[in-house]
Fold this sequence. Notes:
The structure is a homodimer.
Chain A: H1 8-23, H2 27-43, H3 45-61, H4 66-72, H5 76-91, E1 99-104, E2 110-117, E3 120-125, H6 129-141, E4 145-149, H7 155-171, E5 179-182, H8 187-193, E6 202-206, H9 209-218, E7 231-235, H10 241-253, E8 262-268, H11 269-285, E9 289-292, H12 294-297, E10 304-305, E11 319-325, H13 328-338, E12 343-347, H14 351-360, E13 365-370, E14 387-389, E15 397-399, E16 405-416
Parallel strand pairs in A: 3-4, 3-6, 4-5, 7-8, 7-12, 8-11, 9-10, 9-11, 12-13
Antiparallel strand pairs in A: 1-2, 2-16, 14-15
Amino acid sequence: xxxxxxxxxxxxxxxxxxxxxxxxxxxxxxxxxxxxxxxxxxxxxxxxxxxxxxxxxxxxxxxxxxxxxxxxxxxxxxxxxxxxxxxxxxxxxxxxxxxxxxxxxxxxxxxxxxxxxxxxxxxxxxxxxxxxxxxxxxxxxxxxxxxxxxxxxxxxxxxxxxxxxxxxxxxxxxxxxxxxxxxxxxxxxxxxxxxxxxxxxxxxxxxxxxxxxxxxxxxxxxxxxxxxxxxxxxxxxxxxxxxxxxxxxxxxxxxxxxxxxxxxxxxxxxxxxxxxxxxxxxxxxxxxxxxxxxxxxxxxxxxxxxxxxxxxxxxxxxxxxxxxxxxxxxxxxxxxxxxxxxxxxxxxxxxxxxxxxxxxxxxxxxxxxxxxxxxxxxxxxxxxxxxxxxxxxxxxxxxxxxxxxxxxxxxxxxxxxx
Amino acid sequence: xxxxxxxxxxxxxxxxxxxxxxxxxxxxxxxxxxxxxxxxxxxxxxxxxxxxxxxxxxxxxxxxxxxxxxxxxxxxxxxxxxxxxxxxxxxxxxxxxxxxxxxxxxxxxxxxxxxxxxxxxxxxxxxxxxxxxxxxxxxxxxxxxxxxxxxxxxxxxxxxxxxxxxxxxxxxxxxxxxxxxxxxxxxxxxxxxxxxxxxxxxxxxxxxxxxxxxxxxxxxxxxxxxxxxxxxxxxxxxxxxxxxxxxxxxxxxxxxxxxxxxxxxxxxxxxxxxxxxxxxxxxxxxxxxxxxxxxxxxxxxxxxxxxxxxxxxxxxxxxxxxxxxxxxxxxxxxxxxxxxxxxxxxxxxxxxxxxxxxxxxxxxxxxxxxxxxxxxxxxxxxxxxxxxxxxxxxxxxxxxxxxxxxxxxxxxxxxxxx
Lengths: 418, 418
């Protein structure tokens, strides 16, 4: 579908109709579509990159901050990566059509669940071409329609990507409205779109907290939220301290701008004297600023004083808060109060404690002895992800293909009555 | 918790806190709670029935319609049934704590999903004491907190039932706020409650379409909707006509006021002349009024003429619309247009067609050769149900214990980094 001025209602209606056809497409046909998409991205790379250069120039002229321009920018190698991300999604198993939980009841009725697409998904994202391509590939593979509202800073890029989707869908005679990218939608239009609960089945907003709150507060369609990631690593009294050091450094510094990076470290008091000086030295070497509570500060001469608002804060930068806790329960309490239901980590050699932590801590992903940075659909074996849900309905944690589907009951009998 | 005038925020907060403790309760403890609930219902039957008689008298004095009074009324035998429904829930497997989808990745990371409760569930129902008891039993077993807003017509009954829940929870030292029944909540309070998305995880409204729309339009909390049930039975050209006749009669007449009763019959034209006269006679014997399209009317002299608004209408009464369709595709089109995503039935001996129907028709439960009346948690082997979802997010079709849970990722490593 081309970006145009049709009303939101008509546009969404057309996308929903196309989605109904995609829902019944065979795995082969969907894979052919993804092959064609991969080809189109590579074949049209010159025009995509030209359009992207225009977007980047306009954004720079407008004084858009560098980290946003960085996310907006494509180049040859990034485009090849996107094409292989599409190929990767093609290689994943198709969840649609799987039959689950078969049971034959006493009266002879066969009850099963059939895995089906969700329908039409609205994806609200900022100026990230990569997120758009990945969302499109995942929804095609899972048989869902997609209507994307993306940041206007990427409007030229979006048009060329829309052309690639059109080419791919048309090559297998699927309706091109199955992936519809809107770049001219303002907040009022978005508000209208979020009322279309009879047409759109799910809204996935990806972006800053403000965007997500706007969508949550205005939507009558179910929203899968990905709020902020305030991730903690707790160094237990039974921790392997070398491992804890490595995981703290990796979780904080490997890519600090991401939601699964660490924002705070909690250290059991019995290991604090041993652990904190090493931690301080290692983080200093990586240029990390430490904000320490009074007890940790005694062992971290280089640290700044942590203020109240530093607990539960998403720094998204080379800054980390560090606190000494008297015991395991105090760590649980701190996480319950300041965690964001995203990723929480314990380092411990005590298996029972690790298992308890995984059950008791409220988050979509709870890790024992592993880096928070591994909470990602790809790293956890889902193949790819469309987002990370921090609320419990429908999906919790990274959302891959299966999370873009649901099941219906299919019942087969030979005349059973009630 | 006793029904009182605390603010909704405080009340919900206390329920959420109690829910967090219930979430970690063992299966044994939850089963003990349900045993104690069963005992309390039987032990306090005199006071429950006295309170219920008062509610029924007040309702009758106010001129509340008989079918609502019927739902409100309890007696000894109904109360014993409710106690055994509680015992039945106790006997079901506990979904919480199950570990699913374990995989060990190449880097040695073990990724699993742990089944956990949803948290705190708000249940908005009309004056149905049975629904309140069943919802309470299901949420206790699934480790969820429950906050119930029920119709004020059942306020005396609700207080006695609240006492039974209190007794049961207190007997195992669980906080009684885990089941909180509110009877004095008006629409403004309800509107406030529906904003508490940080405290309440899910809203399940059960009642008329007006109530469900009010909840959907005012809620910032995810809502599991159970709209109306406009269920069709399609008699295919390859149908066993005797079976079709039995299923039509059972689906329409066994309990016409329920959402899984049939509201319309679609008959393939090649079998219409054979089938419809027998259908007409059988339905006439049961006192069913037929509203027929012109073609069906030719074969059903006793029928009234179907008006446009009779298609897609939920009669909830001994009335059924009947239409002759030229082919299978026309039946699919009719259901796509007028169905309500609840229950759809095909009668056919053609297995491939049955399987196609189950995949192509949009509903939470699609049946081949079985009565629509069997779409019910109990009849489909879920043990019990808290509602039937007609939207696709999180749960679709009847919702049992498993649908009151979700999963989180639990990841265990030995120092893996990114």
